[in-house]
Amino acid sequence: MRARRLGAAGSGRRRGLSPARDLSVRLSRIEAQLAACAFGRLRIEARGLHRLALRLGLSEMSRVAASVEDCAASGDAAALGAVVARLWRIGAGALAALRRPG
User: Domain ranges in the chain?
Assistant: First the structure.
């Protein structure tokens, strides 16, 4: 059951979501996990975002998502807050680029 649940919310692109929407959902989940101090879950979400960013060609976002994952693993709350804030800034630019027509 645990594997099925992780698969449903796991790191693969969710069926029916555009890449921009998938990115937005993942960023929101990371913020929620940070607010809840759920570092284990935050790490899982960051890993999924890292993989999605790689698939979309968003190399800077991919690197920052990997840093979020590392900070969550180490439990460094101060660094984690700073890196998640950076991820949000980069994410805003990436979302704008993905939603741009043409």
Answer: 19-99
